[in-house]
């Protein structure tokens, strides 16, 4: 069984100019997923990796798993969520947003938005983690008006098993 972390770290070492200081450790099974998009924003800025179901592309996907790292000086998790929500609502009127849980070092939220700015409607459940070196985001999205409760519960369970690791030994930071 492959794991997102293994793919993420391999891609970062082989394809990117900079290796981040931290990564998300997750047990999400990637046997049915391919990397649809990846981008290293450069030293001190972070990266994003987006996985799509095998046979789909980043331009035509039905489901999407994203791992993002915003490296460097970042706002608090609450400030990040507030700005994200405000931006999304101004870009796409009709956006729905709800914080599902808040912990000291993570916030889990769900949001959806109608078709806007050239994007199809989308619903997403996400968890952001505060690392030592930035903010990490792990999310699952579908092109649908709303995620069903079974899907939400499945991904919340996956998020609960995920955490931030750091250094060559990939040790948990919290």
Number of strands: 10
Kindly report how far apart the N and C termini lie: 26 Å
Q: What is the alpha-carbon Rg in Å? A: 15 Å
CATH architecture type: 3-Layer(aba) Sandwich
Strand content: 35-45%
Order of helices and strands: HEEEEHEEEEHEE
Largest sheet geometry: 7 strands, antiparallel
Tell me the helix content: 10-25%
Shape label: globular
Question: Helix tally?
Answer: 3
Examine the coordinates and then state which fold CATH places here, giving the name of the CATH topology.
Answer: Protein Transport Mog1p, Chain A
Give, in spatial order, the strands making up the sheet with the most strands: 2-3-4-8-7-6-5
Name of the top-level CATH class: Alpha Beta
**Count of individual domains:** 1
Low-pLDDT regions: 1-20
Structural class: alpha+beta
What is the structure about, briefly put?
With 174 residues, the chain is of the alpha+beta class.
Task: Give structural attributes.
single chain, alpha+beta, Protein Transport Mog1p, Chain A, 174 residues, 41% strand, disordered N terminus, seven-stranded antiparallel beta sheet, three-stranded antiparallel beta sheet
Characterise this structure.
The protein is α+β, with helices and mostly antiparallel strands. The protein has one domain: Protein Transport Mog1p, Chain A. The chain has 3 helices and 10 strands; from the N terminus they run H-E-E-E-E-H-E-E-E-E-H-E-E. It has a 7-stranded antiparallel beta sheet with strand order 2-3-4-8-7-6-5, sandwiched between helices. A 3-stranded antiparallel beta sheet has the order 1-9-10. It is globular. The model is unreliable at 1-20 (pLDDT under 50).
């Amino acid at each position: 069984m492959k794991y997102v972390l293994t793919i993420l770290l391999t891609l970062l070492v082989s394809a990117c100019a900079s290796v981040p200081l931290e990564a998300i450790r997750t047990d999400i099974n990637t046997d049915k997923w391919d990397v649809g998009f990846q981008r290293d924003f450069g030293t001190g800025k972070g990266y994003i990796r987006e996985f799509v179901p095998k046979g789909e592309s980043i331009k035509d996907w039905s489901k999407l798993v994203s791992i993002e790292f915003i490296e460097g000086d970042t706002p608090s998790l609450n400030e990040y969520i507030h700005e994200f929500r405000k931006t999304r609502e101004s870009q796409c009127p009709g956006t729905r947003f709800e914080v599902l849980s808040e912990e000291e070092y993570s916030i889990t939220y769900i949001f959806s938005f109608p078709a806007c700015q050239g994007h199809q409607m989308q619903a997403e459940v996400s968890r952001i983690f505060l690392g030592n070196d930035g903010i990490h985001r792990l999310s699952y999205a579908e092109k649908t008006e709303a995620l069903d409760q079974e899907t939400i519960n499945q991904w919340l369970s996956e998020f609960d098993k995920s955490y931030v690791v750091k250094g060559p030994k990939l040790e948990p930071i919290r």
